Structure formats: C-alpha cells, structure tokens
Amino acid sequence: MTIEHKILELAHLREKARQGGGEKRIAKQHEQGKFTARERIEKLLDEGSFEEFDTFVTHRCTDFGMEKDQPLTDGVITGHGTIHGRLVFVFSQDFTIFGGSLSKAFAEKICKIMDLAAKVGAPLIGLNDSGGARIQEGVDALAGYSDIFLRNVLYSGTIPQLSLVLGPCAGGAVYSPAITDFVTMIRGNSYMFLTGPKVVKQVTREEVTTEQLGGADVHATRSGVAHFVAEDEDEAITHLRRLLTFLPQNYKESPLLVPCEDPVDRPTPQLNSVLPENPNHPYDMKEVIHTLVDGGDFLEVHEAFAPNLVVGFARFNGRAVGVVANQPKVLAGVLDNNASIKGARFVRFCDAFNIPLVTLEDVPGFMPGTTQEYGGIIRNGAKLLFAFAEATVPKVTVILRKAYGGAYCVMSSKHIRGDVNYAWPTAEIAVMGPDGAVEIIYKKELEAAEDVAAKAAELKARYASLFATPFAAARKGYIDDVIEPVSTRFRIIKALEMLASKEAVNPGKKHTNIPL
User: CA-to-CA distance for 123 and 86, rounded, in angstroms?
Assistant: First the structure.
C-alpha cells in the first residue's frame, strides 16, 4: 500500500471517529437540546486549538457480542487546547456511543490526560454526559471509575478541576464531579444521583421524579453539589470560560494580574449610607460587593445554597480575590451548618490556589436551636474556623456592622491570622448583642427598676458605648484601623498590594485533619 493510500485510510478513520454513534444518535442528541461531545469541545476551547489524543482507541470487551461493535474513541473525546490562550486539558463523554457508558479503555483515556494535566500544571475540565458504568465489562468498568477517582483525589489542590454535567450522571459516576472543585449543571437537562427513581421506589417506597431526585435546582439549593446552574449548554460553557479567568494554572502559580481601568481611589459615597439606621434592619451585602470590586464584576459561587453567606470571585485593581461575606438580607447573615460548610470549602479552594481572601463581615453569631445543634453546627462551624486559620494566602477583613461571639473569631479575625483587619465606625464587636448582654450583666438592676423598658434601653445604650464599638478592639490592636466606608475600596487594594509578597508556611505534617 502506498503512502497516499495510507494517508487516505487515516483520513477515512478520522472521519469515521468524528461521526460518533452515527447521524441518528447525533440527531437525537440535538433534539434533546444537547450538543455532541465534539461540538462541546469546539465551543469550549479557543478556535482551532484542540489537539485530540486516542482517537483510535476501542474497547476490549468480548462478552455479550461486544466484539462485533467497536466504535473509535470508545465514547469519550480527550485532548488539550487553550482557553483565552492558556493551556487546559479536557475530556468529553459521547452519549451517542453506548450512551457514554464507561469502559476500561474509556477510563484509561481519561486517566492519561489527567496525568498529563498534573505533569504540566494545567486545569482539567470534564464534560459529563454518561449512562454510567458499561455493564458488559463488569468489574473492569468499576476499576476504571476507581482509577479516575484516585486521580481526582491525588491532583486535588494541584490543578483546578472543573466539571460540567450536561446530561445523566448516575451511580458511581457522580463521585468524580463531586471531588472536583466546581460543578455546573444544566436546568432541566442534567441530573446526578447515586440511585435512580426506580431503585428508590423499590427500597424506600418513595415515588420521586428524576428532576426531584437529582436535578440541577435540587443540587444547587439543597445538597450543595452544584456550584452553578445554567439554562443551557452555551451559558454553561461561557460561564466556565469566565470562571477560568480568575484561576491560576496550578498551585505553584498565582492568578493573572489583569489591566484595570477602574480607579483605585474611585469614590464610593453610597457606602456611607448603605447601612440602615436601625442595626437590626437588613441590607443587601451584594450591593456592597459590587460597589467595591473592579467594574462591579462579581462571579458568585453557590448562589442558591446557604444564601446567608455570599462567596465568589472578583478583582481589586486587577488582582483576583475570593470574597467571603455575610448576607444580612438572609437570616440576618447568621452562620448555620450549610453556610459554614460552603464557606470552608471556598476558603480552602482559594488557599490551595494562591487566591487572596477578602472577608466582609456582618454576623450576629451562629444559628441557635436543636436543628442546628443536632445537625452538627459545632463541627461544621469548626470547618470554617479551620479553613480560615489554616489559610496562608493574604487575608483582608472588613467588619461593617455586627461581629458577635464565636462568629467574630471565625470570620478571619486577627486572632486566627487575619493579616489586615479593618472596621467601619458602625462595627459592633462584642461577645453578644446588647439585648442578650443586658439581660445577663444587668439582671439585678433590671429586676429592681420601676420602669423596666426604660431601664433596659438605658443599659443597652451604656453597653453599646462600652463594648459594641470598634474602638475597644482597636485599642487592643485587634483591629488595624477604623476606616470610613467611602475609603474601603482604596484601603483593601492597598492592603492587598502590601501583602502580595507574603510568605507563610504551616508546621510540617502529612496533612491536616479538618473536622469533616
């Protein structure tokens, strides 16, 4: 056979691989509002940048007549390319081939690019659309999943790992996305669960739909598995490309410093009047965040999960940061089980990838009650404390209003290695608020008073002037400065610039033992 014939054969095989499971299955994929595995890669990566690996891989199963059907790629497209000119590795599961089910060969393809991503230090992106393990391969398929899980764990904190769930993701398949750093799901067209509705009905007698059991909104609001929800695949892909702009390539690098046209000293007079006169009235912390950050651009993470704590990415003078902020608009900004877990995971991600932390604090404490106590608020609150204390990245905290009790300690206080801690003049830093404190401290005076209400008001004012103020903490050096709200953006930027060369190392150990 001449070289020309061999080249023609190569071109024929490549074209065959591009056809996936065939025109009918591709058409069905499109009918469901889903792109094909290759179309997804083309939309995700910079035009013309994709370099495919293992196009000619096929499965090796000879049971159940499988040897008669051995499509090229075996149901997953793998390779590397660029996003915004930066190297990334990607795998895209092809539902048109065996329903995207995973075989040993399929898993080996994914493991190969996972290893390469870790070797060269580049993000890994998984596009998930799979019916799960390929039943015909038995334990080989389970071994393949385990090989992937192992790498997800070993490379956690080494390179960013991002997952898009664009169709079904069931059984053991859910664990790979769950281990990765961020999961995006599609509303109405993707789902994740360990056991499907039929098995649930068999075992527990519950009747539940696929969407109710593992749809995007369920995981975005209740389980916290999904960090982001998109309306369609185009939105999900655009969002992921945006997310990557805030992240470094690996744990040895820092996020890119981008040119900033937003003045460092931009006036923000609205911050001087953002707080209600009544300290018990709510306001929207997101308005504060959008006012402070470059161009008002804030990428919120876990928006629908535990909304009493706001976390996400932004920039200050072109420098990417992770923002952690209490939300007085929801549950008064109190810390509960879900908020503590949400915050701890986000803080640890930022610390793993050299992203400075900016904390905006207005927290009345931890949520009381048996539901929270039985749910592990001590253990979960300790996770957030642990994450902030363990973090060695630059940490800047601004207390806007309330900072009471243990919640003050936990929210990146000076006592757990906050680098720069500011407070507005409106800050109230104390063991507890005036209402509770007066009942304890001045119990006898209240009991002896003729007009209890008037006496209580007087004592609350006395307590507030002594303790519910930033100056008591500032006198002890626990607050580095009391600042005007209008200067907050400028002061945060200057603090981050000063801390840019910070070096901090935790004591030697194999690894920490966070209270999971």
Answer: 9
Please tell me the number of Cα atoms within 13 Å of 181 on its side-chain side: 25
> Taking all residues of the chain, what is their mean pLDDT, rounded to a whole number?
93
CA dist 14 and 31 (Å) reads 25
Cβ count within 10 A of residue 266:
13
Q: Which amino acid is at 472?
A: A
DSSP string, 54-110: -TT------GGGGGG---TTTTEEEEEEEETTEEEEEEEE-TTTGGG-B-HHHHHHH
Note the pLDDT of residue 446. 67
Reported as type and span, the H/E element at residue 144 is helix 139-154
Residue 459 in this model has a pLDDT that exceeds 80: no
Whether the per-residue pLDDT at 433 is higher than 80: the answer is no
Q: What is the DSSP string of 480-504?
A: SEE--GGGHHHHHHHHHHHGGG---
Residue carrying the six token digits 């939309």? 43
Q: Are 480 and 420 in contact (CB under 8 A)?
A: yes
Look at strands 76-83 and 161-165 and give their pairing. unpaired
Cβ proximity of 396 and 314 under 8 Å: no
Q: Looking up tokens 């009391």, which residue turns up? A: 482
Identify the H or E element spanning 356: none
Indicate the pairing of strand 395-404 with strand 420-423: parallel
Rounded to whole angstroms, the Cα distance separating 266 from 249 reads 31
pLDDT of residue 63: 83
Residue spans of beta strands (DSSP E) within 120-217? 124-128, 161-165, 168-170, 182-186, 191-193
Mean pLDDT of 473-478: 94
Please give the pLDDT value at position 416.
Answer: 97
Q: Residue 136's pLDDT band (boundaries 50, 70, 90)?
A: confident
Which stretch of DSSP H or E encloses residue 256?
A: none
Could you list the active site residues?
171-172, 406-407
Mean pLDDT of 9-15: 91
Residue with tokens 């912390």: 285
